[in-house]
Design goal:
By secondary structure, the chain is an alpha+beta fold. It is built from 19 helices and 18 strands. Strands 2-1-3 form a three-stranded antiparallel beta sheet. The radius of gyration is 27 Å and the shape is globular.
């Protein structure tokens, strides 16, 4: 049985005319400028698939070595068909999904010590498997749907990227196995990250935006994808990646798909063997710094705790997405600069470093090439639970972003976007405080923190839900007209946010019980003060005006809310 990813269609796409197709690796790269987007099973498949395609492009085109070569490729508007075809022909045997000796991203002949296989539910996180039982799962792992070879290839990549850290079945030829099992397995190669990838209007633009300079091609450092290395076996090692290309195709598990005859003479996969795979070395400060230098698709946060533990002067750890927060609320780390910092500069090193791939888009040559192009940012991640042995939540978001906000030469748009986010957070905080004051005015004591926290959180959730779509539209408008004045854009957002949050405040007041309007006395003696709905509303409007004050170029329609509540009272 054979299914070669170079020739067989396995990547679902949407073409520019809106039609759908399933393309091979060769077809999707040669037609990348005609492909609007990948149309995969789940957003979490997008990063590993894109990184696979990036590895092929880097190796086939031998670069880009620098910004000048990248610019030359950009001018061509499509990838070099001859170079792509030649490279894939050279590597064709390593892309066969069911090859007996070296199946694609698998270990040929892999066998569990106990000889058992498991269902393909082990590869698909939304299907119940062992301890990983998603809520309301419609399938159990004793009778999961069979996977077509195309589906199996996509979920194979997904497993290497996102698999849980549960105990793995021991491979028969792995000397590190104890009692038939391997313990201490980390999550897949992307599991520790909050993955961030820029997306363009076509797949070609997306791949070009993610292509980073690869000077290693000139220095001779062997930054090779898995298919250019020795075939995988059941044995694994812990090591440092030599570069991004190796990391893009990191074999985090040892896997073997079990093909079997399917309907109409086809092939399906129902059984699989999954064992421990290679681990990224993270033991020393130098390991961590090397990992960060190779990984362009995550933001990083400085970790004083790890610096102490590793006795290393400058250590960063990936910034992961928070499942309860929209991407625009966490733009700070994404827009942080990503300049390399030496140990000598550790004292003044930044607390955050943005994803290298976004920082590169802010370079002079790329910013000029991308000017006026609709750019979006994809964010993907998982939240694991019980020692990372189960997946609890999946995170996926796509956000329009002005290229100018990434510019290394001019920070006006970057500052404007971050100012809008910070002002919005302060304004929402004012609304949450209003919710608290109203329940206190109705008779709740300040000491009843659990009750107060619930009211604050509901107000925050409703506020961010109301602000979400308008903020995305505001960003999209900014992305379409980067010649616009950032200060004028901030003024528009301030007026819109003010209207939205005033409406939210009015809804809270309309829902307050009559006791809140009568109010109550807080505190004793000289500290005693009256709180009622009217005063709570006045406090809110004052705080809202303060939060948005620096964004206004023109005064709001009703300037009364800028009054100091103490004076008004």
């Amino acid at each position: 049985m054979h299914f070669n990813l170079v020739d067989e269609g396995w990547l679902p796409v949407v073409l520019e005319d809106g039609s759908r197709a399933e393309l091979s690796v060769r077809q999707v790269l040669l037609r990348a400028h005609q492909v609007r987007t990948l149309d995969l099973d789940t957003p979490s498949q997008v990063p590993p698939v894109l990184r696979l395609l990036l590895a092929v492009v880097h190796r086939a085109l031998r670069g880009p070595a620098d910004g000048r070569q990248w610019g030359a490729w950009w001018q061509q508007g499509a990838f070099d068909a001859s170079a792509i075809t030649t490279y894939l022909e050279e590597q064709r045997s390593r892309f066969d999904l069911f090859d007996a000796r070296a199946p694609f991203l698998q270990a040929g002949g892999l066998r569990a010590q106990n000889g058992a296989t498991k269902t393909v539910a082990l590869l698909v996180p939304h299907v119940a498997s062992g301890n990983n039982v998603p809520l309301f799962s419609a399938q159990r792992d004793d009778r999961p749907d069979a996977l077509s070879p195309a589906q199996a290839a996509r979920w194979l990549l997904h497993a290497h990227a996102w698999d849980t850290a549960a105990i793995k079945t021991g491979a028969a030829d792995d000397p590190k196995v104890k009692a038939g099992k391997t313990t201490g397995n980390p999550v897949g190669s992307l599991g520790l990250l909050g993955v961030v990838m820029p997306l363009g209007p076509t797949l070609w633009h997306t791949l070009m935006c993610n292509l980073l300079p690869m000077p290693a091609f000139e220095t001779g450092v062997e930054d090779l994808p898995v298919w250019e290395r020795a075939p995988l076996t059941g044995q694994w090692e812990e090591r440092a990646p030599r570069g991004p290309v190796e990391l893009y195709t990191w074999p985090a598990r040892r896997i073997r798909l079990e093909p079997e005859p399917g309907p109409a003479g086809g092939v399906v996969v129902r059984q699989v063997v999954v064992c421990a795979g290679d681990r990224i070395a993270l033991e020393t400060g130098q390991d961590l710094r090397g990992w960060m230098s190779c990984e362009p698709h995550s933001a990083w946060k400085r970790s004083p705790n790890l610096e102490r533990k590793r006795s290393f002067p400058l250590v960063y750890w990936p910034v992961r997405h928070r499942v309860e927060r929209q991407l625009w609320r966490g733009l700070g780390p994404l827009l942080a600069h990503a300049e390399s910092t030496t140990a000598a500069g550790a004292k003044d090193a930044p607390a955050m470093r943005g994803p290298a791939v976004l920082a590169r888009l802010g370079s002079r040559e790329r910013a000029a090439a991308l000017k006026g192009m609709p750019l979006r940012v994809l964010a993907v991640g998982f939240e694991y639970g019980t020692q990372s042995s189960v997946i609890e939540e999946a995170y996926g978001d796509v956000l329009p972003l002005p290229v100018a906000a990434l510019s290394a030469q001019d920070s006006d748009w970057r500052d404007a976007v971050l100012t809008a986010v910070e002002a919005s957070e302060q304004a929402v905080r004012a609304l949450a405080h209003l919710a608290e004051n109203l329940i206190v005015a109705a008779g709740c004591r300040r000491s009843e923190e659990a009750l107060l926290a619930g009211h604050r959180e509901r107000a925050r959730e409703n506020a961010y839900a109301a602000l979400d779509a308008p903020f995305r539209r505001w960003l999209a408008t900014a992305a379409q007209d980067e010649d616009a004045d950032p200060d004028e854009a901030l003024d528009r957002w301030a007026h819109q946010a003010r209207r939205i949050l005033r409406a939210q405040a009015q809804a809270l007041l309309d829902g307050a019980p009559p006791a809140a309007f009568r109010g109550q006395q807080e505190g004793d003696g000289d500290q005693a003060q009256h709180i009622d709905a009217a005063l709570a509303s006045l406090y809110f409007h004052h705080a809202l005006a303060k939060a948005l004050s620096e964004l206004f170029l023109t005064p709001p329609d009703d300037p009364a809310d800028v009054n100091d509540p103490e004076t008004a009272a």
